[in-house]
Amino acid sequence: MTSGNRSGTDIGGGHIGLAVTMLALIVVSSFSGARWTLIVAGGFTAWFVLALTVVHIKGGRGREVVRRAYVATFGWGDYVTP
Q: pTM for this structure?
């Protein structure tokens, strides 16, 4: 898959999703402590590693694998913004 016009938009949504996730982890950490913060962060890490594996198996190479896994993990940030 080659980079198209949507790649910048996808990455922007990924950045927003990552920022919201980090804020949520800070809130979880302040109310519940380190245990739940690590559980939630571990879930996102596992999802990212799974996405890396799937994209690599399907034929992705190099930076494209990381970009697509990042968008698969945090790309929901597109839906948070107006």
A: 0.77
